[in-house]
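hey m, so remember when u said the tokens were messed up on ur end? i reran from scratch. heres the input so u can diff it against urs
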Amino acid sequence: MKNQKIADLLFPHIHMSAEEVFAKYPKRNVQDGQIVTRFAPSPTGFVHIGNFFQAFISYNLAKNSNGIYFLRFEDTDKKREKKEAKQILFDALSYYGIKYDEYQTPDGKDVGDYGPYVQSQRGQLYQVFAKKLVAEGKAFPCFCKKTEGKEDVLKQRETKWLENDACEYDPCRDLSYEEVKAHIDNGDSFAIRLRTKNKGDERIVFNDLIKGDIEAKANAKDVILLKSDGIPPYPFAHAVDDTLMGTTLVVRGEEYIASTPAHIEIFEALGFPLVQYCHNPLICKIGEEGNRRKISKRYDPEANMTYYIEQGYPKETILEYLLNMINSGFEIWRKNNPDLHWSEFKFKPTEITAVAPLFDIVKFNDISKNIVAKQSGQELYNNWLAWAKEYDSGLATALAAEPNKYIALCAMDRDGAAKPRKDIYNYEMMKDYFKYIFERPQVEFEDADKANAKEFLTAYAENYKEASTNEEWFENVKTLAGSLGYATDNKLYKANPENYKGNVAKACEFIRLAITGQKNSPTLFTIMQILGDEEVKARLNK
């Protein structure tokens, strides 16, 4: 009776019962094996690769089981919230093709029957269940100051804990009705805390689909359920929301393992069946000192999912690389199925790696090279142009003005090639990679080659004529080189190199340097065709 009176005193505006809430959120009609999971980010304006990692795991598990995947914004921390954050997240998920079945649109419309899909709009629901727990004696009001801070209790409160070195009981847990009423009449703000049933020496075992059974110390702390502003921190919101929304599997980072005992006690106090947990490992990098550390938005540009968009990586690159991190079997699967879409690769929660994956930019770029190499010249041009329109307007203007020229450029050693070149890994690098198309190179010949290069290029410029095939072009070069003292037979050259100025490969190197400024490039004949006779002659004469 006392507890009910306290509950009514604390929540006079809450008249809805828990049963009435459940009537509004009926049990989902899902079949055995179907997974209902979610991505529940905080709208901070930064899409961290670690959060996206969880989102991608959840997305695949839901789709692989013909289940349901929904998006829920956990925006209860208003200090961290950014106004434009939701749109940034929508844009990132859309770019990577991550689609959800239920969500709230940027203009505030709920799509789905289990909304609102934004936590700050679900305040009354939390208060219904907080009131219920207070009425049952499982929770109580705490009037201590600053109870919702990160440290949980200020220094001046430390002496008030009724501690036995094992549990932390809040000093307000046994206030009488009269004491609570006096605080309320005085206008004092309050938080709601769980009245832990544990003494501090209990142990529990809970199951994680990646790590198996985990034994841990049971929660023995009066954790906060509602802050003084009526908004719940993550543990209570998680229990209420994931129960009402019918979540069957929660994918989250392994840093939550330590707080799981508190979450479990909250579920038990509410009388809710516990959801299944899947604590994924955290993505790491090797630091400057050679230490293994969590990938950080402060130090690592790769931590930001928009980084890959800005750099012009194909969206498939990050998705396939994450699949490599999720399940080591993906690499073998991709090798055996080079032409299948990544979504054809299926995995179960129990098949997710338990070891923290290491982000390796070299391997990441190698994967991207393979993906870019599969694009036709037309596809590569389209993707390059789309990226340039967003991030390099001058380049976009040039690409759009001469589409045939740049399609041919992108198609070099690609369309129809038995082994396409694997030099390009993102669209941002392509302007520099093909810089010899956009500007005449500054050519530097080695001292030992200067005289021969000048002689050969002068003669080549005087005798230059456009060829119709690569074979014809090479024969022209070979003939001229032979007349100027270059070996046209490599066996003879290797046997007596001192008898020649070089071989035909050396002559081609002079042309390549004059045209591109590089010793290595895609097919020289095609480059010269793209540049045109006038530009080729100008570069040779220069």
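this time it looks ok to me. The radius of gyration is 33 Å. if urs says something different then somethings off w ur setup not the seq
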